[in-house]
Design brief:
350 residues; seven-stranded mixed sheet; 16% strand; binds pyridoxal-5'-phosphate
């Protein structure tokens, strides 16, 4: 049993889809062939349909969320970006951008605090505001109304959202930001090595105006190829094939989002009934539906005892590395596994 929040448990169906991918012959097709363009087009149209992404948004594939951080810094930032975060992934994005653009500023807030939109100020030079919608390091999540408030207050800069550990697991209103990305080894329950990067018409316009073209993955190259359903370099065809297949079997994101939330509510009820183990995030308005961080008395002992029972839990991350354990609430994990983990945690306390 694997509750690691990425790479995470794969969907059972991946085994069958891997075989189908091999048999289809698509994996030896040139990435500029018509067969490959059809695969790309189908995968993108299924993504838009299943995740409710507006038709006018452009979708490209990259290899990781980390690569998306670089593309955004290189191709969408003329002068400066503004990073708002409450955890380690948002901070890493800020640090990686600073190395590239030399001019990024940061604002940090607390895990029990809603996005403090009223306290934010950005300079006139700010091209881009960067937000981590689901902070995998501490199990917090920015709600849609907070993104709306941000968008209403800052109408000029683009808003870019890291949704790596929520896309495919919760409902995201893509109209509330201009750039969205996620890699597939979290909520999508697929093997790592592929990320989805989506651009609004406003982002496309800004990327084209900046016209940065010094990197193999510069936006103008990604865009030029996307118009032909091609890619700038030989892409992860297997990952794209598996994503397409998984999307075909996936239920609507509205249902998935309700299920994730129901499971999270059940998880919190359960955790609050325990004697010593408590959730890290107590505020139900900031806690994540897809990643749950818990505070045990003795992290290493709990990880070890779980391992002995064949249960892999997520180690803590960043500032919470030594004090927390993270539990993925992803759809590839079934109800029986959750019951078994909860039984283990209750027995562990007694
Ligand atoms: C996992 C994760 C990343 C890094 O993803 P890669 O695909 O390994 O680059 C970035 N941001 C968040 C929020 C994550 O959870």
């Amino acid at each position: 049993m694997n509750f690691y929040p990425g790479p995470s448990k794969l969907f059972r169906s991946v085994e069958k889809h891997l075989q189908e991918a091999y048999q289809s012959g698509l994996l030896s097709q040139n990435h500029r062939s018509p067969a490959f363009a059809i695969l790309l087009e189908e995968c993108i149209s299924k993504l838009k349909a299943k995740l409710d992404i507006p038709p006018e948004y452009e979708i490209v594939f990259t290899s990781s969320a980390t690569e998306c951080w670089e593309i955004i810094a290189q191709s969408f930032t003329k002068t400066e970006s503004y990073h708002i975060f409450n955890g380690a992934f948002g901070e890493k994005w800020y640090q990686s951008t600073q190395k590239i653009t030399k001019k990024a500023s940061a604002f940090s807030f607390e895990i029990e605090e809603k996005l403090p939109v009223d306290s934010l100020t950005v300079s006139d030079e700010t091209d881009l505001i960067c937000i981590t919608q689901n902070e995998t390091s501490n199990g917090t999540q920015i709600r849609e109304n907070e993104l709306s408030a941000l968008q209403n207050k800052f109408t000029e800069p683009l808003i870019a959202v890291d949704a790596t550990s929520s896309m495919g697991g919760t409902y995201l209103n893509f109209n509330k930001a201009d750039i969205w990305f996620a890699s597939v080894q979290k909520c999508f329950g697929l093997p790592a090595g592929l990320a989805i990067l989506a651009f609004s018409p406003k982002a496309i316009e800004q990327g084209l105006a900046i016209n940065e073209n010094n990197h193999y993955n510069s936006f103008v190259k990604l865009h030029e190829n996307a118009l032909k359903f091609q890619t700038a370099y030989t892409p992860n065809g297997l990952g794209i094939f598996l994503l397409k297949k998984q999307l075909e079997t996936m239920e609507s994101i509205y249902l998935t989002a309700c299920e994730s939330m129901d499971r999270r509510i059940q998880w919190y009820d359960f955790l609050n009934s325990l004697k010593t183990i408590k959730p890290l995030v107590q505020n139900i308005e900031t806690c994540s539906d897809t990643v749950i961080a818990i505070l045990p008395k003795n992290v290493n002992d709990l990880l070890k005892k779980a391992k002995e029972q064949g249960i892999t839990l997520g180690k803590g991350y960043g500032k919470w590395k030594d004090s927390t354990i993270r539990i993925a609430n992803f759809m590839a994990i079934n109800e029986e596994e959750i019951e078994q983990l909860q039984k283990f945690l209750r027995d562990y306390e007694n």
